[in-house]
Amino acid sequence: MLKWKDDYLIGVEEIDKQHEKIFEIGGRAYDLLKNDTYVDKYDKIVEVLEELKEYAIFHFKSEEEYLLSIRYKKFFSHKVEHDNFLKKVNDVDFNKIDEDQDAYLLSIIEFVINWTSEHILKNDRLFTEN
User: Fold this and answer.
1) Residue 1, pLDDT above cutoff 80
2) What's the family (predicted)?
3) Cβ contacts of residue 107 below 8 Å, gap of 6+?
C-alpha cells in the first residue's frame, strides 16, 4: 500500500506537500482496489488515473521550476524521469482496464509505489543534499 511516512521528506516544504498528495492519490487507488461494493470500477479507475496524471503534471512543473531556480546540475536527467512517468500514465490502455479491472489497477498502483518511492528516496534527495 502507498502510505506517506516522514522518511520521504526531502526538506523542501512545498515539494514535500506535493509528494504527500501523490501518496494520497495512490492511497485512494488502493482503497478502490480493495473496495468490493463496486461491480464496475472502470469510471472510478479512469477518474483516479486522470487525477494522478493532472497532479503529476502540476508537481513535476513545480519541482522542475525549483530545480532550475537552484541551478541543479542534473536537471535534464531528472526531467527525463518525470517525462517517463508521464508517458507511462499517458499510455494507459483503457480497453485493458475493462478486461480485468482489479489486475490493471494493481499494476498501476505497483508502478506508482515503486516509481514514487524510488524517485523520492534516491533522486529527489540528491538535489537537497547539495
Assistant:
1) no
2) Belongs to the hemerythrin family.
3) none
Tell me what the mean pLDDT of segment 63-79 comes to: 96
Q: Which domains does the chain have, with CATH numbers?
A: 12-129 (1.20.120.50)
Q: How far apart are the first and last CA of the chain?
A: 31
Pick the closest to residue 27 from 5, 11, 12 (CA basis): 5
pLDDT band at 79 (very low <50, low <70, confident <90, very high): very high
Q: Could you tell me the three cell numbers for 2? A: 502507498
Residue type at 32 in one-letter notation: L
Q: For residue 12, what are the contacts with CB-CB under 8 A and spacing of at least 6?
A: 66, 128
CB 86 within 8 A of CB 57: yes
